[in-house]
């Protein structure tokens, strides 16, 4: 991956929105690494956009008629990776159209470079839309920003659904069967644009989470003591396909004020604790009411993120198991709220939240 250039396309109707193409003077001007196009083109593909190009000190402005995001993704320049950046409550991802191959177009190492917020595009992960298997419509794979591959991603699968709708030019309500490392996941795009996801059933058996913490009689780890640097935290372990350690505070401690946590200090100690052989995501939770919770997350392979969909699901399961909450909750995350329901009749968890385009771009590989 080499030199840098970017293009951002935005509609003429909004004075705050612009379209830019720029190349760094110090790098190969003929080899742009980044071309960015704004979400507005996605929202109204037929809106005329303004394109501003700046190369070294010169700049040109041109109107681009009928910019189409799908057309942008259809471009197949050799040596370039086309992508769309999405976010779900600030948990951001580089989405790659990988429908023509069952192997991701880039390696975990390349993904980690693209996720770098200073030297790359910047994201919490890279998500690939691959062909479906076992009767599913698509397969979703994801690399975390450190290059590791998790089984599932809740915010990511909402972005995935919106990405597929854009690639397939679908409008309105649609649902998809997605094969993931956590099994079958079914997101449904609703009329209001939010995505409701059937996240399947939580896994509570300690060895399947996985955790080496001693299990209860029913093999679950609920409100168990975990020693972290000499402090005992009460934790409940839940897998949503990927491992989560949920805590409402320390032994004998008061209701935790999550804003006061030194997340960057404590998070890695949970993530890499010896009782979690596959590392873990950790959610720190404050209870406002039995249907309103607030959490901060330290993600395995990505650190502190603004939201974690699987984490919010794990939090509601843990809160119900610990007798702290009802099955239908609003979970506030740093990036905004998610609606989570753990349905008694089928044991499935449903997550509802937004997914938005940030920009379109391409990078040389
Ligand atoms: N942010 C995601 C979870 C992404 C995977 C996680 N970092 C892991 O390694 O398990 C979500 O929204 O669920």
TrEMBL record:
Write the Enzyme Commission number(s) for this entry: 5.1.1.7
Q: NCBIfam families recorded for this chain?
A: DapF (TIGR00652)
Q: Which GO terms describe its cellular component?
A: chloroplast; cytosol
Protein location = Plastid, Chloroplast
Catalytic reaction equation(s): (2S,6S)-2,6-diaminopimelate = meso-2,6-diaminopimelate
Recall the taxonomic lineage recorded for the source organism.
Eukaryota, Viridiplantae, Streptophyta, Embryophyta, Tracheophyta
Residues annotated as transmembrane: none
The name under which this protein is listed is diaminopimelate epimerase
- Naturally occurring in which organism (per UniProt): Pyrus ussuriensis x Pyrus communis
Q: Which GO terms describe its molecular function?
A: diaminopimelate epimerase activity
Record's keyword terms, sorted? Amino-acid biosynthesis, Isomerase, Lysine biosynthesis
The family assignment reads: Belongs to the diaminopimelate epimerase family.
One Gene Ontology BP term is: lysine biosynthetic process via diaminopimelate
Task: Please give the pathway this protein is involved in.
Answer: Amino-acid biosynthesis; L-lysine biosynthesis via DAP pathway; DL-2,6-diaminopimelate from LL-2,6-diaminopimelate: step 1/1
Instruction: Answer yes or no on keyword DNA repair.
Output: no
- Enzyme class label: isomerase
């Amino acid at each position: 991956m080499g030199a840098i250039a970017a293009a951002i396309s935005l509609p003429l109707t909004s004075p705050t929105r612009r379209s830019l193409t720029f190349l760094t003077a110090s790098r190969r001007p003929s080899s742009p690494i980044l071309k960015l196009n704004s979400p507005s083109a996605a929202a109204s593909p037929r809106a005329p956009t303004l394109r501003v190009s700046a190369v070294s000190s010169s700049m040109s402005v041109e109107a681009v008629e009928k910019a189409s995001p799908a057309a942008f993704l259809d471009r197949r320049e050799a040596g370039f990776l086309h992508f769309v950046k999405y976010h779900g409550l600030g948990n951001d991802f580089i989405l790659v159209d990988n429908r023509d191959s069952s192997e991701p177009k880039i390696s975990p190492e390349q993904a980690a470079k693209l996720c770098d917020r200073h030297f790359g595009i910047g994201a919490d992960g890279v998500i690939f839309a691959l062909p479906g298997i076992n009767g599913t419509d698509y397969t979703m794979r994801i690399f975390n920003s450190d290059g590791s591959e998790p089984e599932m991603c809740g915010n990511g699968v909402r972005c995935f659904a919106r990405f597929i709708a854009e690639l397939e030019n679908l409008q309105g309500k649609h649902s998809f069967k997605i094969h993931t490392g956590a099994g079958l996941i079914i997101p449904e795009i609703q009329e209001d644009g939010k995505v409701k996801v059937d996240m399947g059933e939580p896994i509570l058996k300690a060895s399947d989470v996985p955790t080496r913490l001693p299990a209860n009689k029913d093999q679950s780890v609920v409100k168990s003591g975990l020693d972290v640097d000499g402090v005992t935290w009460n934790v409940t372990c839940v897998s949503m396909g990927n491992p989560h350690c949920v805590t409402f505070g320390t032994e004998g401690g008061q209701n935790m004020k999550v804003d006061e946590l030194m997340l960057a200090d404590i998070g890695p100690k949970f993530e890499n604790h010896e009782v979690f052989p596959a590392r873990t995501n950790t959610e720190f939770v404050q209870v406002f009411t039995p249907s309103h919770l607030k959490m901060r997350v330290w993600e395995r392979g990505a650190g502190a993120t603004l939201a974690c969909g699987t984490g919010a699901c794990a939090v509601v399961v843990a809160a119900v198991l610990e007798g702290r909450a009802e099955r239908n909750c609003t979970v506030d995350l740093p990036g905004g709220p998610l609606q989570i329901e753990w349905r008694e009749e089928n044991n499935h968890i449903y997550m509802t939240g937004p997914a938005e385009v940030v920009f379109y771009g391409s990078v040389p590989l």
